């Protein structure tokens, strides 16, 4: 059982620092964005990766910080005491939260595959969130290590070269592609994605998907995304591999940080719940996507951990 006072103190530090860093970067990002011509920021204004820190935005980011802290807590030893803790935390917040996000937003692989967002918009968000995440990680780890950890301990585990020899990345990518396509095609038929793509505002910037070219792009893109996900998840590989229910830890990382807790989704949902504005429409839109990614990630996490243990 976790030490509850210690856990609450950790969550408080994490979420408070998250709000402060986000608010600072929101002002900087939106001020700099005004310099760019309108043609450079169509997707940025549509998806709103940053919003001015009004009370509702601050509250939503504080709650998002709490949720992020809880999901990351099982890997606290790896992040705070590990030799490469800074890299592990940065990989989580920037890599999984943005680059590998299941939402096709600016800066994400899914956004590059599925939407017409320009290269400059992807680049702007990638750089901004990278700097924000890095500053947060450095300050947070300094705070944690100076407060209650006197010496850094190297967490023992497999080296990346060992993972390559053992076929970890190949297994991860293969199972990712299989579950992505099977679950994706099933939900595409069951949930009327074709009608949703034509009517919902959230799909306004999507590319036309009904072509052989897009099928090829999606297939090849998921190979790349699977490899990147495998590398991003690897710092936590030993932790979830050695736990009896490690597949649930893997599912938590994938489902929350790449999906529900990404830099865009959670503030939108929390804002609608608190104000009630657009909540019905948002809940209607959530039925397209959320059940699919939940099912796919559950199946993937269980299959990968089961198959990986058998091979290891």
Describe the structure.
The radius of gyration is 19 Å and the shape is globular. The longest helix has 30 residues, at 4-33. It contains 16 helices and no strands. The protein is mainly alpha-helical.
Q: Output the helix-strand order.
A: HHHHHHHHHHHHHHHH
- Approximate strand percentage: under 5%
Structural class: mainly alpha
Distance between termini?
29 Å
Tally of DSSP β-strands: 0
Radius of gyration: 19 Å
The averaged pLDDT comes out at: 84
Number of helices: 16
Main β-sheet description: none
Name the overall outline.
Answer: globular
Helix content: over 70%
The low-pLDDT segments are 149-158
How would you concisely characterize the structure shown here?
The chain is mostly helical. The chain is built from 16 helices and no strands. The protein has helices spanning 4-33, 42-47, 55-72, 76-81, 85-99, 109-114, 119-148, 160-165, 168-190, 193-199, 212-233, 237-242, 246-260, 265-275, 279-286, 290-311.
Give the tags.
312 residues, mainly alpha, 16 helices, 0% strand
Write the layout of secondary structure elements.
Blueprint: H1 4-33, H2 42-47, H3 55-72, H4 76-81, H5 85-99, H6 109-114, H7 119-148, H8 160-165, H9 168-190, H10 193-199, H11 212-233, H12 237-242, H13 246-260, H14 265-275, H15 279-286, H16 290-311
Helix pairs in contact: 1-3, 1-7, 3-14, 5-7, 5-13, 9-11, 9-16, 13-16
């Amino acid at each position: 059982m976790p030490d509850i006072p210690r856990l609450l103190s950790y969550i408080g530090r994490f979420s408070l620092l998250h709000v402060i860093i986000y608010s600072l970067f929101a002002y900087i990002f939106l001020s700099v964005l005004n310099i760019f011509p309108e043609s450079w920021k169509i997707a940025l204004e549509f998806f709103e990766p940053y919003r001015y820190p009004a009370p509702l935005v601050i509250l939503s980011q504080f709650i998002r910080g709490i949720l992020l802290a809880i999901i990351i807590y099982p890997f606290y030893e790896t992040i705070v005491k590990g030799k490469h803790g800074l890299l592990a935390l940065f990989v989580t917040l920037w890599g999984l939260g943005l680059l590998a996000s299941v939402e096709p937003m600016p800066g994400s692989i899914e956004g590059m595959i599925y939407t017409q967002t320009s290269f400059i918009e992807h680049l702007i968000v990638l750089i901004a969130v990278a700097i924000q995440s890095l500053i947060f990680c450095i300050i947070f780890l300094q705070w944690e290590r100076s407060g209650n950890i006197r010496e850094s301990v190297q967490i023992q585990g497999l080296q990346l070269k060992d993972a390559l020899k053992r076929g970890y990345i190949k297994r991860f990518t293969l199972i990712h592609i299989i579950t992505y396509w099977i679950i994706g095609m099933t939900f595409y038929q069951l949930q009327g994605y074709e009608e949703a793509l034509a009517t919902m505002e959230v799909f306004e910037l999507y590319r036309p998907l009904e072509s052989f070219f897009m099928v090829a792009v999606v297939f090849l893109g998921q190979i790349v995304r699977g490899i990147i996900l495998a590398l991003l998840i690897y710092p936590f590989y030993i932790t979830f591999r050695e736990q009896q229910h490690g597949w649930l830890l893997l599912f938590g990382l994938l489902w929350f940080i790449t999906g529900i807790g990404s830099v865009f989704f959670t503030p939108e949902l929390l804002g609608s719940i608190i104000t009630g504005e657009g909540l019905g429409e948002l809940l209607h839109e959530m039925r397209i996507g959320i059940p699919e990614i939940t099912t796919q990630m559950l199946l993937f996490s269980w299959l990968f951990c089961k198959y990986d243990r058998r091979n290891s």
